[in-house]
């Protein structure tokens, strides 16, 4: 599981970035996005990057995805979300504090997953019932 921090100008850009990560990055959210203090998010990102930020964020959210940090980074690099997305690894100092903040934080307003609740696409050719088709290509190298 990877912890992802998203910071940006407004809620709509964050929601769009999360949707892009799900749709185009094929990341699966493990937890629902939670509201994080923007100043804390900025300071955490500054400590990770070891430099000052050009722009400060107005809103921030964080959540866990099922994929590991390396795969998450590779998938996010393929897309260009409209907000600043940072994969926070457990080797950073702020990881534990951010993880503990998620327990008490309220849900990020407006988020609804577009992914189906079943296991994948449905094969309608099969008579007598629906059979979900699992797509394990993306996560094929993950340890089970």
Write up this protein:
This protein has 144 residues and is of the alpha+beta class. The chain has four helices and six strands. It has helices at residues 11-23, 38-49, 69-78, 95-104, and strands spanning 2-8, 34-36, 59-65, 84-88, 121-123, 131-133. The strands form two sheets. The chain has a four-stranded antiparallel β-sheet, sandwiched between helices. A hairpin with a 7-residue loop joins strand 5 and strand 6 (131-133). It is elongated, with a radius of gyration of 17 Å. The model has no long low-confidence stretch (mean pLDDT 86).
List keywords for this structure.
144 residues; alpha+beta; four-stranded antiparallel β-sheet; 4 helices
How far the N terminus sits from the C terminus, by CA atoms, comes to 13 Å
Our count of helices gives 4
Which stretches are low in confidence, meaning pLDDT under 50 for 5 or more residues running?
A: none
Could you say which overall geometry the principal axes of the C-alpha atoms support? Answer: elongated
Rounded mean pLDDT is 86
Major sheet attributes: 4 strands, antiparallel
The H/E string reads EHEHEHEHEE
- Global Rg: 17 Å
Question: Beta-strand level of the residues, as a percent range?
Answer: 15-25%
Percent helix, as a range, is 25-40%
The oligomeric state of the chains shown is single chain
Instruction: Please tally the β strands and state the result.
Output: 6
Helix/strand-derived category reads alpha+beta
Widest sheet: strand order? 2-3-1-4
């Amino acid at each position: 599981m990877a912890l992802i921090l998203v910071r940006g100008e407004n809620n709509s850009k964050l929601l769009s970035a999360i949707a892009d990560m799900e749709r185009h990055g094929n990341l699966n959210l493990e937890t629902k996005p939670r509201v994080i203090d923007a100043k804390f998010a900025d300071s955490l990102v500054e400590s990770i990057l070891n430099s000052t930020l050009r722009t400060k964020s107005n809103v921030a959210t964080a959540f866990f995805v099922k994929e590991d940090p390396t795969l998450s980074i590779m998938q996010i690099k393929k897309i260009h979300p409209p907000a600043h997305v940072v994969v926070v690894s457990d080797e950073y100092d702020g990881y534990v504090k951010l993880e503990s903040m998620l327990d008490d934080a309220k849900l990020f307003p407006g988020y609804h997953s577009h992914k189906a609740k079943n296991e994948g696409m449905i094969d309608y050719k099969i008579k007598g019932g629906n059979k979900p088709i699992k797509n394990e290509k993306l996560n094929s190298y993950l340890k089970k």
